[in-house]
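[Meeting: bench + compute handoff]

Bench side (C.D.) handed over the final construct sequence. Compute side (W.E.) agreed to return the predicted structure before the next meeting so the bench team could plan truncations. Sequence as handed over:
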Amino acid sequence: MFEEIDQYVRRWITVTPADLPVLHSLLEYREVPKKTLLLQEGEICRIEAFIQKGCIRNYYIDEHGSEVTLQFAIEDWWVSDIASFQDQKPSRMFIETLEDCTLWCLNPQSKDRLLKDAPCFERMFRIMVQRNLARLQERLFQTITTTAVEKYLDFIERYPTIPQRVAQHYIASYLGFSPEFLSKVRTKLRDSRG
């Protein structure tokens, strides 16, 4: 039952025989249908969720009322609003399931208990935050320095399965494009490849 999350944990940290049972006892298993909002703007984020199955996106609504996708998360990834979860302050984003999902969830209390009872997990969560920060810095740099075609090609290379799983307008909003502009970029690439 815990096979996927145990493999994830072992990829990042060394655990003792006592550590994984602590994690297992604190995780909440959830089956969540497609198009469910796990978090809405203004709410306090109360979950950090490991995705066993499914696809989720984080987004916000800009001043024009348009949805702007911040992140996609799929199997073997974690999803949350880190700032809202950590500081227990209202979120500025939405977290929505794009597919039926199975999740392993921690809440602030269960995470605190995990870190107290099995301190090795501090390292895992630190590594996760560092990797997330590095990816955000790469994305910022890419936004400033690359062309639309390069942005799209990088997205396809980094996330090869996502285009088959999500609507193109979500990908366009992630890349900072209109759906029409993304269509032009894809047409240009298709034409250049003959």
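W.E. noted at the follow-up: The chain has a mean pLDDT of 95. C.D. will use this when planning the next construct.
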